């Protein structure tokens, strides 16, 4: 990396630096921090440069905005990458599992009916209407 001698050059390099597709977030963040350290750039600006360097739609990067520290930004990057990898799934609570089990049990009871008369009390082979034939 070329030796930077003024703040303007550091800010220009930060604004032009983009995260490569195959580059890890951690490596990218450290690279940006190294550049910023040459001119003592404030944390808020560094965070903004880092987010701007992520080549993705703004709506996908919303999770990154609002980070006030580099540590918080790293945590948000982990969440962002999980989301981008499609690994985010809604959490299932124990109550949801019980509701599904109850619903399944309830539906299975309702689905057992006599095919002759429609009664829930018996199945077709035991149907009293079938006994006479």
Automatic annotation (TrEMBL):
Residues 113-129 form the CCHC-type domain. Residues 83-133 are annotated as: Disordered. Residues 83-98, 107-133 have a biased composition (Basic and acidic residues). GO terms for molecular function: nucleic acid binding; zinc ion binding. InterPro entries: Znf_CCHC. Keywords: Metal-binding, Zinc, Zinc-finger. This is CCHC-type domain-containing protein. It comes from Mycetomoellerius zeteki. The lineage of its organism: Eukaryota, Metazoa, Ecdysozoa, Arthropoda, Hexapoda.
């Amino acid at each position: 990396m070329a030796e930077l001698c003024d703040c303007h050059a550091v800010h220009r390099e930060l604004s032009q630096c983009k995260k490569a597709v195959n580059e890890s977030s951690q490596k990218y963040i450290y690279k940006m921090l190294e550049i910023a350290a040459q001119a003592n750039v404030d944390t808020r600006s560094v965070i903004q440069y880092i987010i701007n360097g992520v080549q993705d739609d703004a709506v996908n990067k919303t999770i990154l905005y609002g980070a006030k520290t580099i540590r918080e930004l790293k945590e948000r990057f982990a969440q962002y990458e999980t989301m981008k990898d499609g690994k985010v799934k809604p959490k299932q609570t124990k109550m949801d599992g019980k509701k599904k089990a109850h619903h399944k049990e309830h539906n299975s009871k309702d689905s057992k009916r006599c095919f002759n008369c429609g009664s829930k009390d018996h199945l077709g082979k035991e149907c009293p209407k079938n006994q006479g034939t």
